[in-house]
Amino acid sequence: MNMPVTEILLKWYDIHKRDLPWRKSREPYYIWVSEIILQQTRVLQGMDYYNRFIETFPDIFSLAGAPVEKVLKVWEGLGYYSRARNMHETAQKVVEIFGGKFPHQYDELLKLKGIGPYTAAAIASIAYQQPVPLVDGNVYRVFSRLFGIDIPSDTAKGKKKMIHIATTLLPAGRPGDFNQAVMEFGALQCVPGKPDCSRCPLRKMCLAKKQDRVEELPVKDKETKIITRYIHYLVWISNGEIILKQRKEKDIWYKLYDFPEIPDKKGIEPRKLFRGFLGKHGISYDQHAKMFISEPVLHQLTHRHIIARFYHVYNKKWHFDMDEGNFRVPMDHMKNYAFPRLITAYMEKFPERFQSDNE
Ligand code: SF4
After folding, report:
1. How far is 156 from 134, CA to CA, in rounded Å?
2. Domain ranges of the chain
3. What CA–CA distances, in Å, run from 40 to 56, 153, 175?
4. Pair 347, 322: CB distance under 8 Å
5. Which of 58, 137, 143, 233 lies 20 to 30 angstroms, CA to CA, from 7?
6. 187 lines ligand 1 (CB under 6 A)
7. What are 342-356's pLDDT values in tens digits?
8. Ligand 1 centroid distance, CA of 197 (Å)
9. Catalytic residue list
10. Would you place residue 265 in the very low, low, confident or very high pLDDT band (cuts 50, 70, 90)?
11. How far is the CA of 146 from the centre of ligand 1 (A)?
12. Positive/negative CA dihedral, 133, 137, 139, 140
């Protein structure tokens, strides 16, 4: 019963697999970079970043030797920046301890920063042909439908069950190809919602299809709780310069650049908040005409919604009282700094708001 599933999936993969740049070689460095990029990013968008990343850092030595700011700049816009910081740290470790070669064993790979069970399994099976199963959302969907499993995917029991199924199906000769085959099958054929089961090579043995439960599976236990955070950015432009700061908080944007923040006071109307902030710095809102507050900008992350406003000030005569950590840069140097996607998207949408001739 099991072997046909394995054979069918491998055969399907040989015919339908997409021609992706990281599939051209079994070099662990390429597999690692692609897996980390694809953790939170769709393949199409990820491909551009992958190509740019490999062009800038063609091997683990060039990545290890680069300053972290350069790595973040190449990563700019991809989000989840801890991935880039961890990659940089892991590259240095692999160079220092293993002479630039990733370890072969799953358990050894797991000890490296930013490499979880999923990435370790991908490197071990795809680069080194180790028989380690790989379970991600796509794999879960394919197997839960195929075998009619309704144990929630976000429970330990559900994960254990999937690892067991994937291990049973894993062929000794082509474990890496099989892992990629199931993921690709989930991405292209057994898609979320309503897949086209009429052209599926597994349709005759698929329990979800037989029981008319395709759209019900897989089951999730709990819905993710979303937290909303408000940010008020002060965009201060004066004498052709703008004030930036590098983020020191060890959060998702650690070491990226953004603007000084006006502390949030829950429930306070933006104009009042702005007046209060300026008042504290001895500046009156009304006497300086070249100020305005942007519309709210929504930035959605998996577990968090960020609502940001940009408080613009253009002034030739005086400077914002600089706090520690803030610094001034000429406007035309801004392109050298890596910003969170929220900010680059805003700057791309309103380039005229970032012109020094507004002063
Ligand atoms: S028959 Fe439909 S639900 Fe079953 S594996 Fe194929 S695409 Fe998925």
Report:
1. 15
2. 2-216, 227-358
3. 21, 18, 24
4. no
5. 137
6. no
7. 999 999 999 999 987
8. 5
9. 35
10. confident
11. 6
12. positive
Q: So what's the architecture of 2-216 in CATH?
A: Orthogonal Bundle (1.10)
> CA-to-CA distance for 126 and 266, rounded, in angstroms?
50
Looking up tokens 């968090």, which residue turns up? Answer: 304
Alpha helices in the chain (DSSP H): 2-16, 28-38, 43-56, 60-65, 68-75, 82-98, 106-110, 117-122, 137-146, 156-169, 175-188, 207-210, 270-280, 341-349
Beta-carbon count within 10 A of 140 CB: 24
Given a cut of 50, whether residue 201 has pLDDT beyond it is yes
Cα separation values, 172 from 107, 126, 178, 179, 309, Å = 19, 12, 10, 12, 55
Region for residue 114 given its phi and psi (left: phi exceeds 0; alpha: psi -120 to 50; beta: otherwise): left
Weakest mean pLDDT among 111-125, 141-155, 173-187, 280-294 = 280-294
- pLDDT of 2 > 50? The answer is no
Q: Is 214 in the pocket of ligand 1 (CB under 6 A)?
A: yes
Give the pTM: 0.73
CA 238, CA 254: separation in Å to the nearest integer?
Answer: 26
Fold of 227-358: Nucleoside Triphosphate Pyrophosphohydrolase (3.90.79)
Q: Are 142 and 182 in contact (CB under 8 A)?
A: yes
Of 9, 16, 209, best ligand 1 pocket probe by most atoms within 8 Å of the beta carbon: 209
| Three-class SS state of 259 | coil
Report the nearest-CA residue for atom 7 of ligand 1.
190
Residue 86's φ and ψ, nearest 5 degrees, are -65, -35
pLDDT band at 49 (very low <50, low <70, confident <90, very high): very high
| Cβ 297 vs Cβ 346: under 8 Å | yes
Q: Which of 59-63, 138-142, 197-201, 224-228 has the lowest mean pLDDT?
A: 224-228
**Mean pLDDT across the stretch 31-48?**
91
